[in-house]
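Sanity check

After download, print the first record. It should look like this:
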Amino acid sequence: MATEYSTMIQKRKEYIACLVDQLELSRGECNHSLKQIIELQSDIDTLFAELEAENGNHAHSLRQGHC
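Expected structure tokens:
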């Protein structure tokens, strides 16, 4: 009976170690995804600002009578 208990404890420890490894992997993937999100948001913000500037320049040109 003591051997069965020891085996059960060892299996649980192994399972816990496996779960901890999965958690660490998930954290790494999450951090990578967050970094990608931040980079993409920065790209979007830059492109949006460029588009607004171009629209402003185009509107200014139209007011000046240039096409």
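If your output differs, re-run the checksum step. Summary of this record's structure: The two ends are 90 Å apart (CA to CA).
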